[in-house]
Design a protein that fits this description.
The protein has four helices and six strands, in the order H-H-E-E-H-E-E-E-E-H. The chain is an alpha+beta fold. The chain has one domain: Nuclear Transport Factor 2, Chain: A, CATH 3.10.450.50. Helix 2 crosses helix 3.
Length: 148
């Protein structure tokens, strides 16, 4: 495994553990850890469109709200089931990350939403940081599973 792939995998190992811990009872939100996982500016693309944002105080405020939303709709676990790293050059990679969101919906039925996100990662500053990501239609998946 290359040094770049090692850094990318370590980034997502920690990121996945933080996401899962945030859905536990009681939740353990590691906002600083999430903040540290992202570049100073990053871009998201989903079926809703393309958005960009700064890794700033507004982002810091949104992190616990996002995890609270996942808990409110019945989220119990968020785990990474697989990572495939595609190296682009000596300091950039795309991480194809397979997630599993375990839930208990409003009717008490348990289930899983599985999805893949694609993350663009840089190690230009020495540490692996997410600077872009592509996600599927999360809102539709939540509706399809009776979560919202």
């Amino acid at each position: 495994m290359s040094p770049l792939e090692t850094k990318v995998r370590a980034l997502f190992d920690a990121y996945g553990k933080r996401a899962d811990a945030a859905l536990q009872d009681p939740p353990k939100d590691d906002v600083d850890g999430v903040i540290d996982s992202f570049a100073p500016y990053f871009v998201e693309s989903s079926p809703r469109g393309v958005m960009g944002g700064a890794n700033d105080d507004k982002f810091r405020e949104m992190i616990p709200k996002g995890y609270a939303h996942y808990r409110a709709v019945g989220g119990k676990h968020m785990t990474i089931k697989g990572i495939h790293v595609i190296e682009l050059d000596h300091c950039h990679a795309v991480a194809d990350v397979d997630w599993d969101f375990a839930y208990i919906n409003k009717s008490g039925k348990s289930g899983h939403v599985t999805f893949t996100n694609f993350y663009c990662v840089t190690t230009a500053g020495g540490q692996a940081k997410i600077f872009a990501y592509v996600t599927p239609d999360e809102e539709q998946a939540m509706k399809d599973h009776g979560l919202v």
